[in-house]
Amino acid sequence: MGSMMQPGARTVRCRGEHALWILGSLCQMFRIPFDQGLAALHCPPCCGEEHLQRMLQAFGFTAGMRSMSPGKLATAPMPVIGFLRGSDQQRPGHDPGSKPNAEVERGIPVLIVRADQENLLLFRPGSHHPETLPLSEAGTSLDSHVLLLGRKLPVDAGLDPEARVNALGDTKFGFRWFIPELLNFKCIWRDVLTASLFIQLIGLGTPLFTQVVIDKVVAHQARNTLFVVATGMAVFMAFGSLMTWLRQYLILHTGTRIDATLCCKVFAHLVRLPMPYFEARPTGTLVARIQGVESIRQFVSGAAVTLLLDCPFLLVFMAVMFWYSWQLSLVALGILLLIALLSALVTPVFRRRVNRQFLLGARNQAFMTEYLAGMDTVKALQMESGLEERYGEYLAAYLGAGFATRQLANSYNVAANLLEQTMTLSILGVGALLVMGHNGFTIGQLVAFQMFAARMSQPMLRLVGLWQEFQQANIAVKRLGDIMDMPAEPHGLVPSRLRNTQPGRVEFRDVSFRYGPGQPYVFRNLSLAFESGKLNVLMGPSGCGKSTLAKLLLGFWPPADGRVSIDGRDIRHMSANELRMLFGVVPQDTVLFSGTIYDNLLHPNPHAGFADVVMACRHAGIHEVIEALPQGYQTELGEHGVGLSGGQRQRIAIARALLKRPRILIFDEATSGLDQLAAERFAATVNSLKGQATVIFITHQVPTGLQADELFRFEPGRAEQGSGCQS
Fold first, then answer.
1. Of 18, 41, 148, 228, which one has the greatest count of Cβ atoms within 10 A?
2. What domains appear along the chain, each with residue ranges and CATH number?
């Protein structure tokens, strides 16, 4: 049973810039368009093996990590990605206190383009000239693990892996999704099946040992035979326990890995869904659906797998039981069929109750998430008493549904156990009659048959609990299907054309939009243009569609009619990430995330240097404030940026947008949290951006000192263009 025990997963990591160099070099070698800026948005500063493989797949390559000595590289298809041994071993943010048995990352990847029996020809990151490495030195210089590459050109090449799965669109998410994932661990399932075979053989031998002891050893007072049989039974039982532990370990280990894969894929797909999906569903409901992964994991890595493995062996036990006594076998089968009928009757009721319990739990989750997020408003409006009453009602309904579900399961378990005890009693009674009938049926055979029957009934009783777990997992799969079956926004890494670095020209032509059927139009037949490099101000009252215009431009919502274009290119023909990398946005409601100030600033541009960050903060007028903090840029922020004032959060958002160096800058009420002096300074900063980016400045009132090239006055349903102004 080779390869049963697998060591901890090996982690191979490299710097983000090295991964980008590898991608760029391969794309140049195979004549694939490559935009480093576009790829950098999907490449973290510290790139792991799996992430690098996903990016390679997005460019049409197949990649697999293999352990291969340098001498065998001559037989491998070129090129191959190798890793220099002992260099750059500690990634940024590596915890020095991590476990000593954790695998150390290998630092610098190299591109091996040729290998023979004497030398390797390779490129180092940033080098344009190949380097010859003798095989005698390669063993100490290169890590034994390499990435073997292949070329695959699907019709959807250029989409990232999540978008490629979404593009197929034919397969609904369900339990079928787990089949290819389970097949990825064929060697482990082979070992699990082998262990199950030993377990069942030992289970088959135990009743036979018992029969021998009763009919032969006890009847003939054979003490020496008893010692031999008892010793053999003890060895078999110890070996069976070892096989049981090993089987469960492999199943749990594999289930955990599948659980990790599922969680990552669900989250990766969720963050790529379009904005209307999130606006139509409470956050708490989405969280509850993702938490359903736990029910799926318990089912996949729990009793389900062991029961499925044990079921085929039940036929062997049934054949042995019929060989012992067909009368007793019919008694056992009849009661087992009653247990199966009971399961079939209870299943629809149980499914409905589990579904209701899930929905009520999701409602509770959504309620708590919504009001905890707005706790300042709750306290300001003194809503505590009313919320307590509503939560009590919601909780009572949820607990009532849970009690009804558990009570049904309890009644089901009691009835099934009663039938199992009835089977035991019936076998004992009928078996005693057979023994007393002197038909050759012995007491030892009766005891052995009773043990076989118990072995048969155990999976049926386990099926009772498993069926309940299956219903819960089935509900969780259906709820996750609402996420996984929703088409994601198109994301691509391969650029469709040469990226323009000049400020973009934006045009709306006969655009109409409303948020849904039956809703009033926010605007109809809107036509306007923002010229390249100009500072455009959009003014108007609340609800007139200024911010909606920005959402259309970012591709959050599609227009009902008309066309939105950038430099003459319809944004519907651009992938979501390719479109949004053109923009820097300062939203009306600034959102910062827990972590350091520096982390928050780097979100749109993870590869920016510290000098770039400082320059952006100086432009936004927040550098001095950050420097005055005890920890400076390493100051930890709470959720939603707790620890900073509203104006400070807004200025950090401005710096974050500037750090992206976008072609188009959108400021949506960006000065609403600034005092007059700070707003005037910010206006001067915006003025300096004229010519570097096309600026769209959305506001109720033009700040003092802002030099607008174009002024658009919005009224509900229409917009008017005015001349430039200086307030």
1. 18
2. 13-166 (3.90.70.10), 177-484 (1.20.1560.10), 506-726 (3.40.50.300)
